[in-house]
Specification:
5 helices, transferase, acyltransferase, Aminopeptidase, 5 strands, about 30% helix, about 20% strand, GNAT_dom, about 140 residues, NSI-like
């Protein structure tokens, strides 16, 4: 299978991006909010199969100088285990070259990202919206 990677959203159907993110359970945002989040991100990458179907994506926020943060790595369940997630991360890391990069992920994927050279950060804090906090406790993102 031939995969094409694009770092612009010129050919992106954001309804497909939102559907993929829902399918892999990383977001339930509307298409409009997913589009806004990607367009407001300095770096992004989209992967398409030979039929032009979106099969993976990811984005990164950055100041373009020192700090970058990777979010929303999504790979279609039918394409997982084929290196697409790794390719999305590597593409974003090329775009983030020379910057300190943090990555926000589900606790169940820690070992995957450790294999890609990321380390668990022990000096960070996060503030969730009150109505979302319990889910993050239940899923193991935070202790309390």
């Amino acid at each position: 299978m031939t995969i094409t990677y694009e770092i612009t959203d010129e050919h992106v159907d954001y309804a497909a991006v939102a559907a993929l993110m829902r399918e892999v359970e990383i977001s339930s945002l509307s298409t409009e909010l997913v589009e806004k989040s990607f367009k407001n991100s300095l770096y992004k990458v989209f992967a398409f199969d030979e039929k032009g179907q979106l099969v993976a994506c990811g984005r990164a926020l950055s100041d373009g100088v020192l700090q970058g943060n990777i979010y929303n790595i999504a790979v279609s369940p039918t394409q997982q285990g084929k290196g697409l997630g790794k390719a999305i991360i590597q593409n974003l890391l090329v775009q983030l070259d020379g910057q300190i990069v943090t990555l926000y992920t589900h606790p169940k994927t820690f070992s995957y990202y450790e294999q890609l050279g990321f380390s668990n950060l022990k000096t960070g804090f996060i503030r969730f919206l009150p109505d979302e906090k319990q889910w993050f406790v239940d899923e193991g993102f935070i202790d309390k």
